[in-house]
Design brief:
Helix 12 crosses helix 15. Helices cover 41% and strands 13% of the residues. The termini are far apart. The chain has 2 domains: 5-231, 3-Layer(aba) Sandwich (Rossmann fold), CATH 3.40.50.300; 253-448, no CATH class. The strands form 5 sheets. It has a 5-stranded parallel sheet with strand order 4-7-8-1-9. Strands 12-14-13 form a 3-stranded antiparallel sheet. Strands 2-3 form a two-stranded antiparallel ribbon. The protein is α/β, with parallel strands linked by helices.
Length: 450
Amino acid sequence: MHETVKAEVRRNLIARLAAGQDTFPGLLGFEDTVLPEVERALLAGHDIVLLGERGQGKTRLVRTLTGLLDEWTPVIAGCEINDHPYAPVCGRCTALLSELGDELPVTWKHRTDRYGEKLATPDTSVGDLIGDVDPIKVAEGRTLGDPETVHYGLVPRTNRGIFSVNELPDLAERIQVALLNVLEERDVQVRGYVLRLPLDLLVVASANPEDYTNRGRIITPLKDRFGTEVRTHYPLRLEDEVRVVLQEAVLSWPGTPVVVPDHLIEIVARYTRLVRDSPQVDQRSGVSARLAVAAAETVAASAARRAAITGEATAVARVCDLPGVVPASRGKVEFEAAEEGREAEVLEHLLRKATADAFRGLLAGLDLSGLQERFAQGVTVETGDLVPAGELLDRLGPVPGLSALLQRLGVEQESPGLAAAALEFALEGLYLNRRLAKDAVGGRAVYGSR
């Protein structure tokens, strides 16, 4: 049976929806907003343009579309544009079919090989996308008008598949014109050749809305040819932000066990959302989800560094590992011009606020008087990114209510590292709520009574 790519995608999507399966695995936070729009577009047989700021998962969404293709599909062996044995379109395969008939050589192509992607850049040419004359074939003796002298570009080579253009506005306007026929008439033209290739494609493009005015724009005729425009967004809920971090961040490495407690992941997620909403940050450029991922990985790396230096068996991240998040974030955030020179100060303030918000959200109503009383007796506790968990616990001594604190933070199996992480979080929260004093110098901090 021969069917178009869009019909194939529609059939497989309907089957997944009917079976209650996840249509786009790995896409988090889009379940009630973006994904239904994409599903409707695919069922309608539309080409799609995804609009959204950086780091919203546009490219990941496009790449998951290959899962809606059949796992294997037949193609004529040796065909550069993946002709179907029942409906060849290129001159070579049409002649082969006439000559060989049922003996036509056929091979099978996996769905992962039916996806083509081009990152639009100002130097992209029509030859890159559509094709050009191959001088080597001409030199071999073929005439210049022979279609066999054409070297096909990325679009024809993705025939019977899904073709994606990332950052479409970065494509020069005169190059965008070359895609008009692809989206409407479904054919390509190469350097005036008498050549018509009716292509079978699902075309998906991504763009940042700001690119319309900053680096370029999608020309009106091309924009009109996309059937559906879908706006993406950053995670709307805190729990979705946390899920993205847990899915994407590499928080442990072979031979280096690292534990990043849930409350630290929540702090990182809250920090990302605060940066995204800050008036000091250029809202037009957005704050990528990659900031949260990099921040969580930095926290894990700080814990691994401490364990390597101090000899701890298991590295457990603590609040003292959070300061490394600020320098890791600076390259991912665009600030308003008025904030020049204050970038680190702004980020440090937002990190403290995220920690305080997490403390109130996770430990609200918990009796921490036992911990405070330790300091009322004149005790001071020094901690830092090179202070082992055991040393911190020894300095604090027995703390009434520790089990309740661990239970509130979801710690099921108590260990020195997790106990120290929970206590240090409580200490920092008490300090941020003005119930303890703190003197921080370099990578060390001393908590004491106010």
